[in-house]
Prior knowledge:
about 45% helix; alpha+beta
Amino acid sequence: MSSDLQIGLSGILSAQRAMLVSAHNISNSNTKGYTRQSTIMAAKMPVYTNAGTIGQGVEIVKIRRHKDDYINSRLRDISSSLGSASVKSQNLRELETVFNETSDASINNALTSFFKGINDLAHSTENMSSRATLLEKANTLTDSFHRIVDELEQMKMFIKQSIENKISDINNLSENIASINEEISALHVSGIESNDLLDKQEALLHDLSQLVNVTVKAQSNGMVNVSTASGALVSGSSATRLTSKIDSSGVINIVNYKNENSKYTFNTGEIKGLQDFYNETIAKYDDKLDTLAASLIKEVNKIHSEGVGLSGGFTSLFSTNAVSSTTVALDAAGLSISPKSGDIYVTVIDESTGDVTKSNISVDVSADSLADLQTSLDGITNISASIVDNKLLIKADSGYKVNFSYALDPNPGSLGTATASVSGIYSGQSNDVYTFTALGTGTIGNTTGLQIEVKDSSGTVIATLDVGSDYTPGNTINVANGVSFTLSSGAITAGDTFSLDVINDSDSTDLLAALGINTFFDGTDASNIVVNAEISEDVSRIAASTGEIGNTTNVLRLAALQDDNDVLDNTTFADYLHRITASLGEEASNAYKSEESFHAIETSLENRRDEISGVSTDEELVNLIRFQQAYQASSKYISIVDGLVENLLRSFG
């Protein structure tokens, strides 16, 4: 009879435990990462008799976790890809706000306002109010560059802190996985199922996969080994700790905590997204901003250095940029603007007479040093040059001024007893020398057919000027390329001659801008661009003119930079800035689309996982009723057996 009771008891216990499993499923129906469990029942081993086998009831042989390892693995992979895409999308959207062109404080508005200030100055170059306004607009522009640089730096600091926090999360997750590995292994040795621990293990693996892409290898004892392409994170019950390190080039790396030479690189995951944003994206847009600022500095300074302010010249000029060595070749002297071989025209003005002397210095930047340039300048009459702290200092003698203007020499010389005067702005495409030669002998304005021939440096005749009886001495004659000529009365002889330097670029070497001589901006990039201190202190030094004070030649050249398609990467400054923001917008849009795509895949996989591993409360309630009925039937069976035993015992009594 005891066997009968055991059979009934096995039914009760099995049904009771099955109900506990269903109840466990129901209570965890909303638990993230929980895997549905079910009881696997089997008949107990029967008793063998001569009449055959007699059953001994039922037993629970296993509590099964309903899982699909492939789907779980795919979810980890997609989670990792989604992690990096989400980080990229989020940070690119934030970066868009930094470069927002529609903002009142944007570089685009500041750049437009700066060139408007230049154009306003062109209406009256001697107006001090216009000059002060231009200075204010220039300061606003430099402040806009600095603001974006500061915001990019703040973003880098935030990303760095985020990386450090994520690494701390990786270390904690790895240690927790290793700890659970140890618990699972211990239970496995005792033959105990560890379903709930396996769920925790899977949940930790999923969280870890959001941070870094990992490969998971299950062991026969229930442990998992977790690794990346660069090395292991978890090996059994041991975990590897990671940390971050910034190298000499400013790149942030993930390394082994105990061995900083052991770098960990990842293909996807939030850490990968943050690393890429820190090392590549911010650096890329920082470089683009620097390129814009450096080009603006270079192009504005190249023009400004060749002009003059309201004083018409300078008693002294001191360069703002130092060379690395005064004796090394100029193209290897560490200047931020690369100089070229060419000519520099130096103008010395006698303040008492107004006489102008132009001198030409030829420079070979691959051979000449700053010391050589200083020697050449020092050899020009009425100025001196020296080197102070690897910077060039130029001084004019008392009563003289010096500049590097490309203005024509107004008093180039005489033909016979007639004095020549020149005016206008040379518009030729290259620097040249015009030679004026008398073709006959006679008196200016009197001798019939008297002419002067003008040739360029190649010997080509560019003009033949009639200065005979049809010419009134003192009248202006157009020569060519914007150059005009006036001759006083007097006698000339055939062969009388003088030469005139005609210049469209008084510094074809770009050395004045490179050294920082008479420049508008100081600095080399977006982080340090500022208005030259001397201009900030005295706006009369803004070089709006060439030669004659008050003309608009140089300020118009500065204004033309706004629409110059050759200043930067075959486009204008404004269009280059538009390219930056357009590129950023496209990159942010693509990142968002990528994030949405991975999110859709993850949702699909989660739905498939839920079909297999998720808990249906309706199904579990049905199971509870089913197991309850089995429990009641087994109880009824035991009650019947108990009644039979009681009746049997009573019959013996």
